[in-house]
Structure prediction request, 238 residues.
Amino acid sequence: MPPPTYKRVLLKLSGEALVGDESFGVDSVIADRIAAEIADVRTLGVEIAIVIGGGNIFRGLAASARGMDRSTADYMGMLATVMNALALSDALERHGATTRVVTAIEMREVAEPFIRRRAIRHLEKGRVVVFAAGTGNPYFTTDTAASLRAMEMRADVIFKGTKVDGVFTADPMTDPSATRLDKISHIQVIERGLKVMDSTALSLCMDNRMPIVIFNLRTAGNIRRAVLGEPVGSLVTV
Prediction:
């Protein structure tokens, strides 16, 4: 088997990735499947950090649109990400992976506060680090948090697991003529308004020459394939 292409990976998961066939909350079967794949990749010697969203529990932007104060709504969304991080951490531990939940909002009883050097040491010791609470600031998405943490952890790449097979010319869920793009640059994604990440996250990746691999998380084995450098999904690069 060839060696992994990437040594240190930042995996971005949406909260919806944990929903499965449910409409709300965490599906333990789905969480277990994702955890099993991550634990398997860890055995290859790959260091893995994860940033997880909270949209399966609470969406700050949606609540703000309904009249709630934006900052309050975003903080509630950050708390939802902590719940998801704890659920994923528990599933990972059951698959033999040692984990640390690290949060940008201090809550020492359930998670470590974010300290960059400490988080890097966890990765170096083979622990899976699950980052929660976004950046700790309102008005920033978990996509932006993933980009920021990837830079801080000196990751080689960002993996973004989605519901589709990569970056398409249009939404493949609604447009049957949409075609997948194997490779595209950050600036092209921004200029064409493609739904990969928000513009702040993409600009941060572009400025720091951080590649992003977008793939279908629902396809078993895709995380491993991506780590090994196999052609899976779409590559966003400089």
Summary: The two ends are 29 Å apart (CA to CA). Residues 8-237 form a domain with the Carbamate kinase fold (CATH 3.40.1160.10).
